[in-house]
Amino acid sequence: MPNWNDLLKNLIPALGGMGVKMLVEEFDKLSADAAEPWKKSVLALLGDALEKNGVDGIKMAYDAIEALINDKEPKIDWADLEVASNVLAQMQNAEADRKSAARDFFARLSNDIGAIMGGLIKGIIASV
Predict the structure, then answer these.
(1) Domain boundaries, the chain
(2) Could you count the other beta carbons within 10 Å of the beta carbon of residue 12?
(3) 126, containing H or E segment
(4) Residue 14 and residue 112: Cα distance in Å, rounded?
């Protein structure tokens, strides 16, 4: 599981400590909700995508999860080998109901990240 604090600490100069703290707390909550191995794999893939590709990584991770849900080969050569391997194993062995749950979980992640990023951007604009 990614260490959200380490992942986001480079954003402190741009976003300010409060915004990064809020983002880390939200990711920690999401991580705590991810008790099942497949949820951890999805969250790790999203974290890896964000770390390596910024906001564009959300779409890249979504496309990979969507491909796996539809039993297609995902494009995840950008992901860490362990992260890619775990998500492939979890999703390829998943039954239809778990694949549907994965789609719902990823949608929740995307919505939460969007709301957080929107709040952070508003905070940045208000502080200048």
Answers:
(1) 4-127
(2) 13
(3) helix 96-127
(4) 20
- 58, 50 in Cβ contact below 8 A? yes
Distances (CA, A) of 50 to 25, 81, 97, 113: 16, 16, 27, 10
Cα 57 to Cα 35, 53, 72, 99, 113, distances in angstroms: 23, 5, 19, 20, 12
For residues 47 and 2, the answer to whether their CB atoms sit within 8 Å is yes
User: Within 13 Å of residue 126, how many CA atoms lie on the same side as its CB?
Assistant: 8
Residue appearing with tokens 């191995």: 37
Digit-coded pLDDT (tens) for 62-109: 889 888 888 888 999 999 899 899 888 888 777 777 778 888 887 877
With contact defined as beta carbons under 8 Å apart, do 14 and 8 qualify?
A: no
Instruction: Supply the pTM of this predicted model.
Output: 0.64
- Match 């990711």 to its residue by tokens: 27
CA distances for 51 relative to 12, 18, 88, 94, angstroms: 15, 20, 19, 26
